[in-house]
Fold this protein.
Amino acid sequence: MKTKNVKESIVQDSIYRKSEDQIGYKEYTEKVFCKWMFLILGSVTAVLSFLVVYEIMIGWGWTNPLPVWFWPVMALYMLGMTINFLRLTVKIDSEGLTVGYGLLKSKISWDRVEDCSLDENSTLLYGIRLGRADGKWRSIYNVIVIGGPRVVVSLKEGRIREVEFSTKNPEEVMEKIQYHSQKF
């Protein structure tokens, strides 16, 4: 796995170094629209909504039909999933790092952060998942649209030792994470 340590990146870019005021004191919030998640989940929601209308208007004519509530419940469930996975949110403030889709978020306090790096391996997988990399459990929040490197935050303790997420501004996010984590 190709990873680039944030300390090396900052030293290499020392000509363009920003002052601590520019890096750390402002809260950083980024919301990334997930086009592919919307297309996939929205299509499934549309099909299930069509099935609700079909059952109401025409009916299935099966000998053992599904319960009347099945298709409407499935359509509402998929609508909720579509809305939840529309945006990946990354928030960095003085309390910690928050990454997630809708209601499914990870909040990491700065005293748990050990280091951060770039994961430059490309992947076509997206969404939320749990995996292993270099023998460590990794929680992954990914968006396929960006296609660039993802930020990997190494944690000091816990079962999940790394959190990986997509962002449009990996260098800026890494600077802010490094700044806040050095305080603790």
Observations:
- The first strand starts at residue 3 and ends at 5.
- The first helix runs from residue 6 to 12.
- The chain has a mean pLDDT of 83.
- Residues 41 and 82 are 5 Å apart (CA to CA).
